[in-house]
TrEMBL record:
All residue ranges annotated as the O-methyltransferase C-terminal domain in the record: 120-328
The species this protein was found in: Boleophthalmus pectinirostris
PROSITE patterns: SAM_OMT_II
Gene3D superfamilies reported for this sequence: Vaccinia Virus protein VP39 (3.40.50.150), Winged helix-like DNA-binding domain superfamily/Winged helix DNA-binding domain (1.10.10.10)
Top-rank taxon: Eukaryota
Enzyme class, spelled out: transferase
Protein name: Acetylserotonin O-methyltransferase
Length: 347
């Protein structure tokens, strides 16, 4: 490790201390979202800590400390030219941290705070045991991954909101990573809220796009996440056990990383059997580097798969081997430079 650190870091470990405090920074943002700070400041003139506290039913002292920390991490602004400090929102907080912004990550924040954060309290046990921590965290068996994720309607909607937030950020890059226009019928397996399917439909208007997911998920998607201009359709089913529709292209976005290799192979063989000749499969995952040196986002995600699921993030060579094993060929990899990458393979 030492050879990678500057002499100044050895003299005083600024970077290590920043890492140590990372969980506190996350909780500052999470708490501000949960308390409604960003939504309040979006619709208000600059407010004092006491005014924020009064409007949100907080303690004045706690509100001031939280607001100051948000200024410190450059998510809020403060004006100290008057006797009383006045706090205001920023473009970043308005765009990403308010509930109703078209690019809102508010649902992602709530899911990270209320589901992922408790799981990560048990990371050491996950590493020690080599299995997820759903039983210790939520009281549900380790082998019931999605029964845990969907343990209540409220929790299911949080997860669906997380997925929607993810594709608001990464969807445009994913659907343009390859030219998918030759694939006229597209099925998004495990497509959840339909957010990525909508990006596909917008980019390829001549294609038919269907979301295939569990009945409870498709019902919730149509009830809570539909849009007026929707031209995607939903089909109910379990892609491990139920009949799959025929299609030119099957999309598996953040699906393969949930499962051990044997289940991935079984699913991809099922897809291969119904995929039209010349059709393909598009995998969307956070790709690890072959040399084990990153990207850190994918490495963190892989640990998250350990604490929450039965799967892991993988390297391009690993995905290529799985795809070839299940009958797909001409594997192409596109790194987007963001959280999620794309792999296209042909039947």
């Amino acid at each position: 490790m030492a050879e990678h650190l500057s002499q100044s870091e050895l003299d005083y470990p600024f970077k290590l201390l920043e890492y140590f405090n990372g969980f506190r920074i996350s909780k500052i943002i999470f708490s501000a979202c949960e308390l409604g700070v960003f939504d309040l400041l979006l619709t208000s003139d600059p407010l004092s800590a006491a005014q924020v506290a009064a409007k949100l039913n907080l303690s004045s002292d706690g509100a001031e400390r939280l607001l100051d920390a948000l200024v410190g991490i450059e998510i809020l602004e403060v004006d100290t030219s008057q006797e009383t400090a006045l706090y205001s929102s920023t473009d970043v907080s308005n765009l990403y941290l308010t509930k109703n912004s078209p690019r809102s990550l508010h649902d992602m924040v709530l899911y990270q705070s209320q589901t992922i954060y408790p799981l990560w309290n048990n990371l050491a046990d996950a590493v020690r045991e080599g299995k997820n921590q759903n039983e210790k965290t939520f009281g549900l068996p380790a082998d019931q991954v999605f029964e845990t994720i969907y343990r209540s309607e409220e929790d299911m909607l949080k997860f669906m909101g997380l997925m929607k937030s993810s594709w608001i950020l990464d969807g445009p890059d994913i659907v343009t990573a390859f030219d998918l226009s030759p694939f006229k019928t597209i099925v998004d397996l495990g497509g959840c809220s339909g957010a990525l399917a909508r990006e596909l439909s917008r980019q390829y208007p001549s294609c038919t796009v269907t979301v295939y997911d569990l009945p409870s998920v498709t019902e919730a998607a149509q009830k809570h996440f539909t849009q007026e201009d929707d031209d995607i359709t939903f089909q109910k089913g379990d892609f491990f056990t139920d009949a799959l529709p025929s299609a030119d292209l099957f999309v598996l976005a953040r699906i393969i990383h949930d499962w051990p290799e044997e289940k991935c192979v079984s699913l991809l063989r099922r897809i291969h059997s119904v995929c039209k000749p010349g059709g393909g499969v598009l995998l969307v995952e956070a790709l690890l580097f072959e040399n084990h040196r990153g990207p850190i986002t994918a490495q963190v995600f892989s640990l998250n798969m350990l604490v929450q699921t039965e799967g892991r993030e993988r390297r391009p060579s690993e995905y290529t081997a799985i795809l070839n094993k299940t009958g797909f060929h001409d594997v192409q990899v596109s790194r987007t430079g963001k959280c999620y990458d794309a792999i296209l393979a042909i039947r």
